[in-house]
Each structure stands twice: as C-alpha cells, then as structure tokens.
Amino acid sequence: MSAVKANTPFVRLFGRYLREQGLPVTHQREAVAEVVFTSPEHLSVDEIERRLRQGGERIGKATVYRTLDLLVRSRLVEEHDFGEGFKRYEHRLSRQPVHEHLICLECGKVIEFRSAEIQRVEARVRDEHGFLPARHRVEIYGICRECREAGATIPAGGLTCPIDTV
Ligand SMILES: [Zn+2]
Ligand SMILES: [Zn+2]
C-alpha cells in the first residue's frame, strides 16, 4: 500500500494518461502529481521537493522533473516561466480556466487575477483579424503590496542616459 493518498480524481486521471502512454503508474509519480494537484500555488521544483520531503517521500530530482514533464504533456498541469531562472507549475483544471498573473520582482510572489476587459480585447481582436484564439498569456511584472510597504521599488534597468557613456 502506498503512503500517498492517490484518491484525488486528478491523480487518477494522470494514472489513466500514463497507462494510455504505456508508462508505469508508480507511487513516485502519483506522489508528485498529488503535491501539484493539492496546491493552490504556482510551485517551483524546489517547493515541490520540499513538500514531498515534508510528506515523508524520498524522490530524486530527476524523477520529479520527469514526472512534471509528463504532467505538462497530459495537459493537467501548466508550466510557467516567469523569468526567474526556473519554472513554476500549476494545476489547470481545479482553477479558473482563464486567469492572468502578477509577478512580484522582489519576493517572487505570483498573484492571480481575472479580467473581463482582457477577454473583451481578445474577442475584439478575434473579430477584427478573423483569428481564432486558443489561449493567451498576460503577465504583469512589478512590486507587490507587501514589498511596496516594506520599501521596495522597481530597480532601474539599463542605461539612464547613453550619451553620458560616450
Ligand atoms: Zn513581493
Ligand atoms: Zn495561475
């Protein structure tokens, strides 16, 4: 008997995907899937590993990466690259299907928001260009409220006045 409670319907769906692909449904794969499916956050691999350890699981990094790759391919999990040098993973099905992201450059927090305006823009562009949209991605980078209250500001990037350097 496995220690992980592989009873969420999403873990069973993932198991079905693995069997369809001719891949073994292992306890380790189920444990990784369980962590992603039971978290409301956008988890990094490090965070996923920490939660597995906290749950008493000992699973190597390679297995975690491989399982995340399979989860993304099964389309149950979405992979994000917010430019932090690592990927984040979120469960696609238990959440609002259409949401956008705010990413704090100071603390790395990811905040979700929904926007009827953005969906209206998508509809208008579809009509104007006869383009059938499958998905879109809106990411706003900045400083979250907590970090602003702690005094963080947006770092100045690049040259302020290129003429001065000549
Ligand atoms: Zn922040
Ligand atoms: Zn999200």
Query: How are the strands of the biggest sheet laid out side by side?
Result: 1-3-2
Instruction: Please mark out the parts with pLDDT under 50 across 5 or more consecutive residues, or reply none.
Output: none
Q: Return the average pLDDT rounded to an integer.
A: 87
Largest sheet: 3 strands, antiparallel
Bound molecules: zinc ion
Secondary-structure blueprint:
Elements: H1 9-20, H2 27-37, E1 43-44, H3 45-54, H4 61-73, E2 77-81, E3 87-91, E4 100-104, E5 110-113, H5 116-129, E6 139-142, H6 145-149
Parallel strand pairs: 4-6
Antiparallel strand pairs: 1-3, 2-3, 4-5
The protein binds zinc ion (2 copies).
Give a description of the structure.
With 166 residues, the protein is α+β, with helices and mostly antiparallel strands. α2 packs across α3 and α2 crosses α4. The chain contains six helices and six strands, in the order ααβααββββαβα. Strands 1-3-2 form a three-stranded antiparallel beta sheet. The protein has two domains: 1-95, Winged helix-like DNA-binding domain superfamily/Winged helix DNA-binding domain (Arc Repressor Mutant, subunit A, Orthogonal Bundle); 96-155, Dna Ligase, domain 1, CATH 3.30.1490.190. One zinc ion is lined by residues 104, 106-107, 109, 144, 146-147.
